[in-house]
Amino acid sequence: MDENIGFKNNFLWGGATAANQIEGAFDIDGKGLSSADFIEYIPKEQRTKDNHMEVTTEHIESVLSGEHSGRFPKREGINFYHRYEEDIKLLAEMGFKAFRLSIHWSRIFPSGYEEKPNEAGLAFYDKVFKTLRKYNIEPIVTLSHYETPYGLTEKYNGWMGRAVIGHFERYAKTVFKRYKGLVKYWITFNEINIINISPFTGGGVISDQLANPLGDPYQALHHQLVASSLATKALREIDSDAQIGCMLARMKHYPYTCNPEDVLKAMQDDQMNLLYTDVHVLGEYPNYYKRFLKENHIELKFEEGDLEILKSYTVDYISFSYYMSLLSANSEEGERTEGNLMNSLKNPYLEASDWGWQIDPIGIRIVLNEFWDRYHKPLFIVENGLGAKDKVESDGTINDTYRIDYLEKHITEIKKAVLDGVNVMGYLAWGPIDLVSMSTSEMSKRYGFIYVDKDDEGNGTEKRIKKKSFNWFKHIIQTNGSHL
Fold this sequence. Notes:
The protein is α/β, with parallel strands linked by helices. The chain has a single domain, classed as TIM Barrel. Helix content is 38%, strand content 13%. The protein has helices at 19-22, 57-65, 80-94, 105-108, 119-134, 150-156, 164-178, 199-203, 216-238, 260-282, 287-295, 306-312, 361-375, 401-420, 468-478, and strands at 12-16, 98-102, 138-144, 185-189, 243-249, 252-255, 317-321, 325-328, 351-352, 358-359, 379-383, 424-430, 450-452, 464-466. The protein has an 8-stranded parallel β-barrel with strand order 1-2-3-4-5-7-11-12, surrounded by 5 helices. A hairpin with a 5-residue loop joins strand 9 (351-352) and strand 10. The radius of gyration is 21 Å and the shape is globular. The chain starts with 11 loop residues before the first strand and ends in a 6-residue tail after the last helix. 48% of the residues are buried.
């Protein structure tokens, strides 16, 4: 095999972010509140459970009344709203071919259900997308990235309400028409499987208002899947030159041992992770899911035409995040990883990040091959990276060699997958500029090639500083990964 064959010339190198983690400006130019605006920063020593992304009705009421005095870092982000030109120029200096970002739905429709959009919000993204185009950077735009307008939570308990489908469809059509010619690649829902792990994060659903906390999020999921298909239909009617994909938090499960019971459990866990792409790509609910619903006494409500919509409007490509692999066992006894939204039994063959995420570069090659074998659809890695504690040295440098090591190992395995014959569209490193952590609302959990001078308490100058990894990734892009 010719080892010089690798990434195609139009491979989309770049980075990925989310509006709620970078923009700030949460209450200006007509923007409404979103689910992210209620997520409080809690110092690690005060956290009481792994999954602290959920909120209660009581919490929301206390925040809205002003009684709650906590910090909400996603309201501040890193001030991308006012510094986007500076930040995009730095990404261009690295040679980015693509930049993934999301539109804050509540900038366009402040409560989520208005009839007419907020022009100031639309105008902001006009400027961002035109700036990206100025530097020949392809915008990869997510419609909903953990940013459900709070108005929809208040009125319908988020995606539990069937009516939200229509509001999302209006929003999608509005931005498809507005940004036709500026945006060629769209993603409907970020990590759509998170709605069944953290309903508030994934869909603005408050769990303490659910009659069936296990089953009800699957109804909300059905609404999102129908909405995703209707958005796909709308894009094809509005801009036939653009493409639209789904997005999954890929959580590859290995069996803890070669005991067939562990192997079976790993297969079942993998199936439930791939449920979301099965529907998006194959256009129907798989039999294993129907069995799961029946065994757990979950009855979904369908409206006439739902299944035909899912079947008729499948995605153009599959995008996904990959950070770690997990272990499955018939018995849950044993040491567990730390994790945040995701944890599992500890894999003795893997190292872990500062936040307990198991580092498994070979896993991304496995995932890519399995996706390709299952679907034969183009694949897009739209999140991968290392959250770590970075130190600014006395001379102002940041020697993040550990990040370079992490990314190099993963990109090398991606290249091997390409040599295996997998069609990979691109690679977007998560958080190319430091941002507020999704799961912990920390700034100290840094992913970027660019350091942002801001700490967990919100102190700092917001100054941008290039890390050692900045020039390393620039070289990767310049050489199209040929030296790996």
